[in-house]
Amino acid sequence: MAEVVEIYSKNRESIYQYLESFLNRHNQIDDKSFQRYRFLQSAYKVDRNFQQVKAGFSRDGKIEEYITDKSNWFRNLELKDDMYISPPHIHLSSGKHSISVVRKVLDGYLVFDIDILKLLQELHLIEYSDFNRLVNRIFYGIGATSLILVSLLLVGFGIYKIGVIIFGLSDDFFSSVFKSVVSTTLGIAIYDLAKQILEHEVIFETIHHEEKLYGVLGKFLVSVIIALSIESMMVVFKIALNDYTQMLSALFLLLGISILLFVLGYFYKSVLKGQ
Fold this sequence. Notes:
Layout: H1 2-10, H2 12-24, H3 31-36, E1 40-46, E2 57-58, H4 71-74, E3 83-85, E4 89-90, E5 97-105, E6 108-115, H5 116-122, H6 130-166, H7 173-203, H8 210-242, H9 247-274
């Protein structure tokens, strides 16, 4: 969920002020802190020699296993006003995007592991619902699965047309070839679109870089334009063989595809320029 880290980065100053206020109110670690602050994941204390003096607290009520020697982690810390706030990272136990905050006290250091998502919710910087997330994933999953079925039907139709040609069952060779190529091309394009939806919205639910999303859209549009170009070639051939009076219609079709190519080129140019 890279959006969470992005929102955190954009509001870093106000979040730091809140965390500094949070640290100033805590000289010790107890269960009450976990009841009051939903964003706390775990907490522990180390002495001045960076040795953890006792097991820490965890939100689920379990006493966390601990490594007594924390000197490797503390060695490179630079405390400002006796405080330190780490960059975002993945929490070892929960697997969530987290930050670690440290406060120096008289007999050592207090360390709090904070869930970034819940911290943003606490500060009303993000609205997040597990139910909405589940509904979105189900909806995207059903939609992507439907697209995959459509792509399989299109590719299957293309294979069927090839079989018709091979076994000599087609009365119009060129028409069957073009239909096979068009349906297969569209099937592959739709499958690629469905795969991207599944990967980004259902399975991994990662954050989507805009350039990658633009790339997916561009690939889909290219496939559609290729299919239209092949279809227009078939139309031109049919008109050339049967009825020259309809050549103007073929010209308009080719002009339309040329405009699509121009728009796609401008789209890519704009995307690259904006990066």
